[in-house]
Amino acid sequence: MLMMPNLKYQPISETLSSGVQLVQKIDTKNSPLHYVQLKILEMELNSSYEESLAKQEVCIVALTGKITITDFTQTFKKIGTRGSVFEKIPTDSVYISNNQTFKVTAESKAKVLIAYSPSTRQLPTKLIAAKDNTIEYRGKYQNKRLVHNILPDDSPIANSLLVVEVYTDGGNWSSYPPHKHDQDNLPTESLLEETYYHEMDPPQGFVFQRVYTDDRSIDETMTVECGEVVVVPKGYHPVSVPDGYNSYYLNVMAGPTRKWQFHNDPFHEWILDRK
Asked: CB of 61 within 8 A of CB of 250?
């Protein structure tokens, strides 16, 4: 019998230092991913987290609260714009390239997401200010969502990473119609692994997410709760949000080429042509 890879990750609780809790960790050891890794930290006031990078780049996102980030050459003080992701306003992030050391200090209680991908080409450290996020509205009918582009593929800041926040209101579908990006076949399709970090409002809510391939070697439909992460090594990956709850997720994508070129499931692409 074919074994499905583990695709859904519940929150963890690991103390990294005084006042710093690791609440999510996705890496190449505990997941089927090769290009994307992820950490989420919950930090108390005045706590700090330091890490030295090897052949990886990172995007550090101030999900909530205020933080200071330094690579010991540049320092970005008291960045972060919101107390809850459901304020639906963009936040500040920092890009740091490979072979550098960085430190995050909490200027308030904060939640911080650190996205990683392979990198060997040195690039400048860069503040991605909230005002520099591009905002767009996608979809129609019951397929509407709000998007904050933190690191889109037309940004020259990073070597591999793509980072985006998506808000979907109750009763709507997202990442829909189902699409995939698992073939290194540009300009038709790019190969990008992906992670979904999910939150719900109110927090006792849930969403449904399906991950499936054309040959059904992967076909899993998951009930996803607040704080959980879904990984997408390949295949289609739509999200459905029940009425009465609002969905937030942050996507991290990376692959051999930094281009988001997707392919819709041909069985469901007709949905786009509705009048």
From this structure: yes
Own/partner contacts of 264-268, CB < 8 Å, gap of 24 or more, are: 264/177, 264/178, 264/179, 265/177, 265/178, 265/179, 265/180, 265/236, 268/177, 268/178
Return d(Cα 171, Cα 148) in angstroms, integer: 20
Burial class of residue 29 in the structure, from the number of CB atoms within 10 Å of its CB (0-12 exposed, 13-18 middle, 19+ buried): exposed
Separation of CA 223 from chain center:
18
| Mean pLDDT on 42-66 | 98
In this structure, what DSSP letter does residue 32 have? S
Question: Residue 239 carries which side chain, given as an amino acid letter?
Answer: V
Backbone φ and ψ for 131, nearest 5 degrees, come out as -65, -15
Query: For residue 177, what are the CA distances in angstroms to 101, 181, 210, 268?
Result: 40, 13, 12, 6
Q: Retrieve residue 149's tokens.
A: 């582009």
Angle in degrees, CA 201, 207, 212, rounded to 5? 150
Residue 60, CA distances (Å) to 3, 63, 67 in order:
34, 9, 10
Residue-wise pLDDT for 156-179, tens only, equals 999 999 999 999 999 999 999 999
CB atoms within 10 A of CB 208: 14
What's the pLDDT band for 2 if we cut at 50, 70, 90?
Answer: low
Q: Which helix (H) or strand (E) holds 231?
A: strand 229-232
Q: How confident is the model at residue 274 (pLDDT cuts 50, 70, 90)?
A: confident
pTM for the full predicted model: 0.96
Class of domain 9-273: mainly beta
